[in-house]
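Hi,

Apologies if this is the wrong queue. I'm a grad student, and the batch job for CDP-2,3-bis-(O-geranylgeranyl)-sn-glycerol synthase from Conyzicola lurida produced an output file that my downstream script rejects. I'm not sure whether the problem is my script or the file. Here is the sequence I used:
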Amino acid sequence: MPAILQTISLLLPILLPGILLIAVLKLDRLRFLDTPVDGGRLLGGRPLLGATKTWRGVVLYTVGAVVVCALLGVVPDAAAVFHDWPGWFVGLVVGLGYNAGEFANSFVKRRLGVGSSTLGRWRILQQCVDLGDGILVVFAVYLLLGVPLPLAAAAGVAGFVVHALTDVAMHGLRLKSRRA
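Support response: The file is valid. Your script probably expects a header line. Output copied below for reference.
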């Protein structure tokens, strides 16, 4: 399989659930999952993760990645990208890994006193971290699953660019806002 198609097959498990999340938010579906993962708990007087990290995102990213990887697992050339791992397992690890990266970033930002969807003093650095947090963990997951470094890196760079584009789309659709 050509490298570009392999890169796309590594990108789809985070791209398609992200697009699904945008659609679900825009259509205001699955509201029952729109509760903060941290349950509103505080640590040192600050939220653990914040109100924008909800179960809706966790479920859509995790289940979406499982479904995408399970489907890719039946495509012979795409399955070769993941080597001997079952597609559903790759999807589960990718989905949970993506969420873990998002949570770690939010946790650190709350400790630093940066609110949800708020830009702190280090705007450009923060925007890069916000776009790359989940992608970086997925890159590490791919390496642990035996994906060759150049291919994982290509998927990571493509994932960062696509995340930046979906972030612009979410702002354009008024699904996200940034406060200074």
